[in-house]
Each structure stands twice: as C-alpha cells, then as structure tokens.
Amino acid sequence: xxxxKTILLVxxxxxxxxxxxxxxxxxxxxxxxxxxxxxxxxRLVARQPHLVITDLRMDGMDGMALxxxxxxxxxxxxxxxxxxxxxxxxxxxxMSKGVxxxxxxxxxxxxxLESVNDAFRHSAPTxxxxxxxAERPWRLGIISxxxxxxxxxxxxxxxxxxxxxxLLQSExxxxxxxxxxxxxxxSRRRGGPFVPLNCGAIPEPMLESEFFGHRKGAYxxxxxxxxxxxxxxxxxxxxxDEIGDLPVAFQAKLLRTLEEKSIIPAGSREKLSVDVxxxxxxxxxxxxxxxxxxxxxxxxxxxSIVTLEVPPLSERRxxxxxxxxxxxxxxxxxxxxxxxxxxxxxxxxxxTAPWPGNVRQLLNTVEQVAVLTTTxxxxxxxxxxxxxxxxxxxxxxxxxxxKFERDYLVRIMQATQGNVAQAARxxxxxxTEFYKLLSRHHLExxxxxxxxxx
Length: 454
Ligand SMILES: Nc1ncnc2c1ncn2[C@@H]1O[C@H](COP(=O)(O)OP(=O)(O)OP(=O)(O)O)[C@@H](O)[C@H]1O
Ligand SMILES: [Mg+2]
Known about the structure:
454 residues, alpha/beta, 5-stranded parallel β-sheet, binds adenosine-5'-triphosphate, binds magnesium ion
C-alpha cells in the first residue's frame, strides 16, 4: 500500500474506540477518532477520510443520523455501521439507505478487516478533497464512486463553464442525458432553459419546424406560430440526442445554423440570432458513420470540440451497489412497499452481471424485482430471473443446482406462507433436514410469514 488509507472511527465508548483503533492501526491504516457524531462531522469538513466506521447507538446524534448527513455531503464516502447484537433490522434498514455495510458486535478482527477491505475495493482511491459534493449541486442525482466516473465528472466541471460544444459518445443507457443535464447545471447558462430534442424521433418533414420553428400559415395546417428548439433554448442549452440519426440532408442546415448562430423560422424572412450552447449525444460511432457517408465530417467537428465518453457499467462495477440501492430506495418510496434491501447473494449477482444495457438495464432490473419481491430482502433468484432473458449466460453446474434449489425453496415457502412443517412435507424431507436447507440459502421462514400479512 503506497499511501495509507485513513479511517475515521466514531463511537462514544472510549474502550471500543481504543480497541478498534489498535486493530486497524496494526493492519496498516491511519486512524482518526471522534467521540460523537457532531465531532465527526466537524472533522469531515476539514479533511475527508477514505472510510467512516460509526457506532449506531450513541448519545446525541446516532449513527444513522450521522450517516444521513455524511451521505448528503459526500455521497461516495463509504460508511460502515457497528450495531449491537439483535439490532439486525436496523442494520438492514441502514444498508438499504446506502450504508456500505454493518458489523454486529462483538466482532472478530477478521470480519472487521474483511468489511474494511471490501469498502476500499468498491470506492474511489482518493477522497474528493475538502471540496465536498455539497459544493457541486450540479452533480446531485449522479450516483457514482468509481474513479473513472469521478475523473469524468472532474472533466465535466472543467469544460462546463466554457461555451464549447460537447459530444457525448457512449453505449446506450450509460447516462448521457443525465450528464448533459449536469453540464448545463454546472455551466453559466444554468439560469436558462435546457431543451432536449431527440433527433431520431422526429419525422423528416417536421425536422425544420422542430429545430427552427414556423410562422402561422407556413404550412396548410400551421394554425399558430411555433417556437423551434433553437429559440426555446435561447440563453440556455440545446441537447441534440441521438444525433447520429439525423438525415444527411438536414445535417447541412444544422451546420449552417451553428456557424451563423441564427435561424429563419419557416414562413418567415427574418433572421433571428440565437444564443445557444449545443450538447449532443449518440451511441453510434460517428467516425464510422463519416466513412459510410451517413454523417457529415464538418458537422462532426463542429459538434465535438470536446468529446466525452461515459464508461460502460461493466467498467465501473464499484458503482453498482450504490446505483442499485439508490434505485431500490426510489422504487420502495414509489410503490410504498417495505423492502429491506438486497440479499448479499443478490448483490453479488448484480456485481458480476455483464450489463450490456448499462445503468438503464440496472434501473429496469431493480424496478422489476422491487415489484416482484415477496421477501423482505430481495432474493438472488429474483435478480437472476430478471437478468436471465437478457444475458443467457452459462453458469457452472453446481451454481445452477444451487440456484434451482434456492428458487424451489422460495416457491415452496411462499406457497406455505412460511410454514416449515408443511413445506417439509411437500418437499418430502424431514423437518431438520429442511431447516438445514433453508439455512444454507439464508432463507428465514419468518420473512415469508411477514410478507404474507402485508
Ligand atoms: N450515475 C447515475 N446515477 C443515477 N442515475 C443514473 C446514472 N446514470 C444513469 N442513470 C439513470 O439511468 C437511466 C438512463 O440514463 P440516460 O437516459 O441518461 O442514458 P443514455 O446514455 O442517454 O441512454 P440512451 O443511449 O439509451 O438514450 C436514466 O433513468 C438515468 O437517470
Ligand atoms: Mg439518451
């Protein structure tokens, strides 16, 4: 380890603080301590550690309240919560809010170090300095902790303030539109409008009117004046989505408008100057399109003074737990359902899935499992099923058997509403054996009873 990782320990129990800091220091970490949540927040503002470990039950601000404040100001800073034995529901609740992990007291050195190393594996290598995310309101809603995304966001901040055109070129579902919106919010034009226009969705005869507007009577059915996207985006940002789908014939008109910074609405003779910053996005390779003759090279250069690439989700797996928990929290709220979070196995599947549809696919998967889950913690089998249609991956036989067994147990437990005696009878197994099977798959009979009531 070249640079020592810093861990901030928060506990009002001096004995535990000493013990924990001894263990962590001897494992090679730099440890800072705070005796209350308030003291911890004070330290965080001055200097951000790489990880926070806090006790849940503390006088004054408790661990969850501390987490909420940390999460708001530094969303990518991992937090581990220490809970007393018996407060597992609190811990599950904490995980579903985005806490990185929890340790149940008493814990041994090994599980402590495993959790700590796990947190470092899934988080950015360097803290984002004292300048917290609270000072970057433009990036609110962009969930990430991976180094690749963090460096992309730094680049965004740098180029946002200038007026240059930016082309976002990356796979579908990676977050291009979200980023375009963030660029607008980070720019000096943030007080002006952000106007998205999906070039692929406009029928060819309507392009002119959608881009430049028309006057009443310009066409037979033009009953009113129509403001085109350029005028609507005046003093703001125009986001040309799916720019690769724009017909070549229209590309020349767009180029001229960009060069002249003015438009002439259909049915008018008057040239109107417009002050617009243009961002565009595509999941097609425009260089290839230029070679094929389907995209004009001069327009490409005009649109791509800066090109940004949003990395595919498979190249920033550290973001998966954060995103998945974020989407689950939103779904829970919308559906008004009591979902505790993902089971460890469900999270493992998501962490290793290929995600060809990127963040959008993750979002859809989470929304699907949130609707379908009957257990308090989302089961691995459900995630697997949601992904199956899209991946068709071959897993080792032992894994497939284990999954089948788990699915089978879940189904039978649902059917019997958690009645183990009845479930064992149906499965033609004795009760002891059946209990063993359930515990091997971490399936709690109580969860099936609870969910059947709600
Ligand atoms: N880092 C992120 N944090 C939170 N939400 C995200 C993130 N990235 C993407 N999303 C969400 O995922 C969905 C897809 O993102 P977006 O529409 O921006 O992708 P896109 O690259 O424009 O996709 P497409 O190529 O399919 O148009 C949106 O609902 C967006 O809010
Ligand atoms: Mg898009």
